[in-house]
């Protein structure tokens, strides 16, 4: 399973999320985002991308932080997690997953892509 994990700032539009997922240039099968960012823009982005949306709990995001390759001081200050997009991708792809695309940014959103091996 290929999972596009996203993080985004308050005020991000669906278009911001769609653009960063498309910029990752990998055909994702699932869109994963933190459950604390659930909202209309996220659902609109999933619909525009024609991807099922999986919401990832804070506990799951915290559990995969050691496997994330990039860190953001801005994200850590804002939400208490040094990596959001990579954590969403890894947690969404399941145990033994690996990053295919490390965090990339576009406007007010970030994306990373992971592959799961279950």
Description:
It is built from 5 helices and 5 strands. The mean pLDDT is 94. The protein has helices spanning 14-23, 40-49, 58-64, 73-79, 85-93, and strands at residues 2-8, 30-34, 53-56, 98-106, 109-115. It has a single domain (2-115), classed as 2-Layer Sandwich (Nucleotidyltransferase, domain 5). α1 (14-23) packs across α2 (40-49) and α3 (58-64) packs across α5 (85-93). The chain is of the alpha/beta class and 118 residues long. The longest helix is centred in the first third of the chain and has 10 residues, at 14-23. The protein has a 5-stranded mixed sheet.
Relative strand content: 25-35%
Quickly give the CATH architecture: 2-Layer Sandwich
**Rounded average pLDDT:** 94
CATH overall fold name: Nucleotidyltransferase, domain 5
Could you give the count of β-strands? 5
Helix share bin:
25-40%
Globally, the shape reads globular
Rg (CA only): 12 Å
Q: In sequence order, what are the helices and strands, one letter per element?
A: EHEHEHHHEE
Give start-end ranges of low-pLDDT stretches. none
Concise synopsis of the structure shown:
By secondary structure, this protein is an alpha/beta fold. It is built from five helices and five strands; from the N terminus they run βαβαβαααββ. β2 (30-34), α2 and β3 form a beta-alpha-beta unit.
């Amino acid at each position: 399973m290929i999972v596009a994990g996203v993080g985004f700032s308050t005020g991000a539009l669906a278009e911001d999320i769609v653009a960063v997922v498309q910029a990752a240039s990998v055909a994702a099968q699932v869109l994963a985002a933190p459950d604390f960012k659930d909202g209309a823009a996220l659902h609109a982005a999933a619909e525009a991308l024609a991807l099922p949306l999986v919401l990832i709990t804070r506990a799951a995001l915290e559990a995969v932080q050691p496997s994330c390759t990039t860190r953001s001081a801005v994200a850590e200050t804002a939400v208490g997690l040094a990596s959001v997009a990579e954590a969403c991708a890894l947690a969404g792809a399941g145990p033994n997953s690996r990053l295919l695309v490390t965090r990339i940014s576009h406007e007010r959103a970030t994306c990373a892509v992971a592959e799961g091996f279950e």
